[in-house]
Each structure stands twice: as structure tokens, then as C-alpha cells.
Amino acid sequence: MFTASTLLAAITADGPDSREIFDPATGELIGRAPVNTDADVDRAIDTAVAAQASWAGLSNDERVAILHRAADAVEANAEALVEILSREQGKPLNGPNARFEVGACVTWLRVTADTPLPVETVIDDGDTYAEMHYRPLGTVGAITPWNWPMMIAIWQIAPSLRMGNTVVQKPSEYTPLSGLALVHVLNTELPAGVLTAVSGGGELGARIVASERIDKIMFTGSTRTGKRIVEASSGNLKRLTLELGGNDAGIVLDDVDPKAIAEGLFWGAFINTGQTCAALKRLYVPNAIYDEVVAALAEFAANVPMGVGLSEENLLGPLQNQMQFDVVDRLVESAKASGARVVMGGTPDRDATGFFYPTTLVADIDPAAALVVEEQFGPALPIVRYTDLDEAVRLANALDVGLGGSVWSADKNRAREVAARITAGTVWINSHGSIHPAVPFGGAKQSGYGQEFGTAGLKSVSQPQVIQG
């Protein structure tokens, strides 16, 4: 078993080919991440391609058993991984944060390993017989973000390996230690070469995407980068799964108890301090209960502690980097200048250590305000008043993204009718952002394409093959 210090010692680097990584809450130096080169990427791809045939040659049961052992290794080293994750990403230990994330890695590994994908009989009518098989694609490039750097990595790695592919993974340059630590633990059980990782800036991801020896790209990140990946992937028409930006809308109906939904609304919006692609980022509330919903949400939010991640009592942490702090600060300042009402928060200490932005609720805001129509990706929720449900649905659908959405109502049938009118990959009823490893997840419009999780996720990293006759 590793401690956080021994695991960091195994993955960090010294010298000019490394970069200092600091805690976003305290500014303390955590360690030095390696900075790999294009040549390193090419060697990683060589290694993965060379290992793929033998990995695919194992039986499904053999690969499943290895993935379970990898899950056991993550579970055994959970606290070491949790500490590195909390210090580097900033998220607290408890609540839906660091321990939750590492636990989700274990769950996703096990469920993905055990999800059945049998041969399908397509037709058997006496004249024609055809079967659908799912074969490995080859080598998958997995490019992961900084907000959930371990969990999203597993979302990409686990199904790829299960189906007989090998993986070259590149963590975000903002959270390289979390990604490298996870891969190091997994590789205590995986065969050599099956999973390799490279660390560095976006140019390394671009090299992975452009390589004609990479057969599939899985990417979670911005729509802007996703579009560049589409363009760069044309060399060998590699398959893509893109989970891109979102600006999820929630619509509250007029039959709810505001106090009963306040906790769900809060965590739908503020999970991971708002740094979640499928978080609730704009809330539409009917005029009849608007003030009550705002008050109930503010009352709950006031009791959720924010602070340094390694302190057990905290449930919200800092923003992960200066760039994201500046985005949230700009959008809230713009809302204030436009006359919107700041119910709580909105006044960060810009001279303090750490990228802390206070929990912020903004009411009576114009539906066209920048804080509403741009993805803030932080702890600031705009709450829009509406009088006509059709108008609320129109506003929810007005943007060019559609990752998730939610409807909040005491009548689930009524909520489902409204949900069916929202253009998004997932629409939740009376919750927002909850995911399950067996339930497919993916975006609509410019929030990307391709699905993850469950049998749909396994198929997305496979080559369908029909055998007829």
C-alpha cells in the first residue's frame, strides 16, 4: 500500500523537464509533475500499440478479473489517492468530493467489468442468420479534465480496457499528479503497456489526437477544444466520444415545496464547488413561489462550510485555478453591474491565499445576462423569474449546449412531460447531475456526442462486426 508521500515520490520528477504543482487552497507546493515531450507521446503510443494484441487475446473473463484486481488496488490505496486529489484539485475530503470521487472510481471499475455485452442475434428467420459482435478498436487516447481528474479518467479507461483496447492517457496540465497517481496504482495490477500516461500541456493531447495509430479519442472538456479534436482526428477517421461544455437549466414548477427541494437544488448546482460539466448552472423559478425558493436555497447554502480541502469539516473548496476564478468573478461582476440582486456571496477576497470564491446566489437577473448564458463553472447560481412555463422551456432550450437539465415538481408525471420538451442528453426529475454506471450519459447539441456508461459505453469503444451465414 502507498501513502500519499510514497505515491507522490513514485510519480513526481525533478529537473528542467518538470513543473511545480501548487495547492489551490493554500498555495503550498505539492510536487513537481513531469513535462513530457512529443517523443515521449510517440513512445507511449508505441508501447500501447505493441501491447494491444496480447491484451485483446485474453478472454473476457480474464480481462474482467484483472479489472477487479485493479479496483481492489484503488480501494486499498484510497486514502493516499484522496489526499493527492484534495491537495491538487482543491476539493474537500468529505461530501460529494474527494472520498466520493475515489470511491466512484472503484464502483465504475467493478460495474464496467461486470456489465454484460453478449453476442446479439440480429435475425434468425430460417432464411437469414446474422450475429452482432463487438471487437476492440485498438488503442484509445483518453484526455481528461481537471474538475474530476480521477473519476472521469476511469470513465474512459475502464470500458476501453474491458473491451480489449489499450489506453494512452493524458491528464489535464492543471491536475497531472491526480491522473498519474491513479494510473500508477492501476498499473500495479494491469499488464505492462496496457495503460500508459503522459503529462504536459495541450500540445501533447493534440499529438495524441493527430496520431494515426490512435483508433479512438475520449475527451471531456470545452466545446472549443472538442471542435479542434474533430478537425484533427480526420487523418484516420478515428472514432470520438466527446463530453463537452454544458450550461444546464433547471425548471422549478409551481407545485413544489421550496424547503423540500432546497438541498437538491443546492448540490445540483454547487457539487464540486460548481466545477462540474453537468451541474445546474441556471435556475428558472415561477413567480408564484420565486421568493420562497430563493429564501430556502439561501438558508441551506448559508450552512455549507467552505475552506481548505484537507479539513474534515469543509464541503466546498476553492476554484482549482486562477483562470476559473477570473471567469466566475467576471460574470458575477457583470450581473451586479446589470442590476441583478446578489442574495449572498459575490464579494471574494481577491488578496487572500487560495482561489476561494464565496457561495453566490444571484436573483432577479435578466435571462439574457452573461451569467445566465455563459457557463460559469463555479459557485455562482443565477435564478431567473418566470411567469409562463412555455417561456421557461424556450429559455432552457435557447442555448447551443444541452448536456443535462432538470425539472422539479411534486407531480412526477407532470415533470416528465416538461422534461420531454428539454433538449439535453439527460433530464433529471427532482435532482440534478446524479449518475449511475449502468445508465448511459452523453450530450446533445454542442455538448458533444457519443455515450458513456453501461452497455452503450462498452459499444462506444468497440468495433461492431456482423457475422452472417
Helix and strand topology:
Elements: H1 4-11, E1 18-22, E2 29-34, H2 38-57, H3 60-76, H4 78-89, H5 98-114, E3 120-124, E4 129-136, E5 139-143, H6 151-162, E6 166-170, H7 176-186, E7 195-197, H8 202-210, E8 216-220, H9 223-232, E9 239-243, E10 248-252, H10 258-270, E11 280-286, H11 290-301, H12 322-337, E12 341-344, E13 360-363, H13 370-373, E14 380-386, H14 389-396, E15 401-402, E16 404-408, H15 412-419, E17 426-429, E18 444-445, E19 448-449, H16 454-460, E20 462-468
Written overview of the protein:
Strands 12-13-14-11-10-16-17 form a 7-stranded mixed β-sheet, with helices on both faces. It is globular and about 60 Å long. The chain has helices spanning 4-11, 38-57, 60-76, 78-89, 98-114, 151-162, 176-186, 202-210, 223-232, 258-270, 290-301, 322-337, 370-373, 389-396, 412-419, 454-460; strands at 18-22, 29-34, 120-124, 129-136, 139-143, 166-170, 195-197, 216-220, 239-243, 248-252, 280-286, 341-344, 360-363, 380-386, 401-402, 404-408, 426-429, 444-445, 448-449, 462-468. Helix content is 39%, strand content 20%. It starts with a helix and ends with a strand. Helix 9 links the parallel strand 8 (216-220) and strand 9 (239-243). It is of the alpha/beta class. The chain contains 16 helices and 20 strands. The mean pLDDT is 97. The longest helix is centred in the N-terminal third of the chain and has 20 residues, at 38-57.
